[in-house]
Amino acid sequence: MGLYRLVLRVGDMAALARPGQFVNVLTGAGWDPLLRRPMSIAGIDGRELQLLYKVVGNGTAAMSRWQSGDEIDLLGPLGNGWDAAADGFPVLLGGGAGIAPVYYLHKELLRSSTAHHLIMGSRSTEEHFLQHDPHSGISLSTDDGSAGVAGTVLDALHDLMEAALIPRSGLSLYGCGPPGMMRALADFAGQHEMDCQLALEEIMACGIGLCQGCNVAMRLPGNTPEHSYHQRYRLSCIDGPVFKAKELVTWQI
Predict the structure, then answer these.
(1) For the chain (length 253 residues), average pLDDT per consecutive 10?
(2) Which of 30, 36, 102, 211 could disulfide-link 24, Cβ–Cβ 3.0 to 4.6 Å?
(3) Residue 66: which CATH number?
(4) pTM given for the model
(5) What is the distance in angstroms between the CA of the first residue and the CA of the last residue of the chain?
């Protein structure tokens, strides 16, 4: 099944949002589903906020049945956001529903006329809503080879570098997607000494740091006490969801 696009009229909230942030959505009025669903913001248009999501459980299934005029309960904007001022040529990489915050950043870079390249990966072509056009700054990849480059977003990145459509060095990577993709991007960036920021897809039930359920392990100096919990971990909802890849214990993503 492909991606769903949801447009919400949120009034003044829209003016507060920036790429990389999320909202926490209550998907039902009863006890099931009980927890809110964190959804990365995919874009802002005036007083409207856009979300992109896949149906993966009861909560998102309920969202897919919403109709125009329905009223919903959400908190936001929450979290930090991308640091788009980093040096280097920006390459934006989104996998599956992880395209949402990357796509928002893409639109903001277009708005500011900042040169960059967007790479969107998915399992198959039905999850794509963009056209594969590497010469215009948009590349697609699919696991089954049905659209764009056959393989992962890193395969597409390698192809772009080989074709000299993006620089071979001096890149700044911005990624969001499933854990395997995040680990691969972090490893690639570390090997090539590239700046890399990752928006992690954690379960953020409260979204405001109370439940402590979205802790993320951080790299620390060797002399840090082993049980220094508040130094060793950060919360994705308030310290993230965007982190610098070099600061993360990537095998725990």
Answers:
(1) 86 94 89 85 95 88 90 93 86 92 96 95 86 94 89 95 92 94 94 94 86 86 62 88 90 65
(2) 36
(3) 2.40.30.10
(4) 0.91
(5) 25
Place of tokens 């109709």: 67
- Location of structure tokens 């790429």: 19
Q: Kindly state the helix (H) or strand (E) to which residue 64 belongs, with its residue range.
A: helix 58-64
User: Are 74 and 96 in a shared domain?
Assistant: no
Count of domains for the chain: 2
- State the amino acid at position 128 in one-letter form: H
Rounded Cα–Cα distance for residues 178 and 163 (Å): 27
Q: Where are the beta strands (DSSP E) in the chain?
A: 4-9, 22-26, 37-45, 48-53, 73-78, 89-95, 117-122, 138-142, 149-150, 171-176, 195-199, 215-217, 233-235, 242-244
What is the reported pLDDT for 223?
59
Residues 192 and 126 in one domain: yes
CA–CA separation, 241 vs 86, rounded Å? 17
How many beta carbons lie within 10 A of that of residue 195, not counting itself?
A: 18
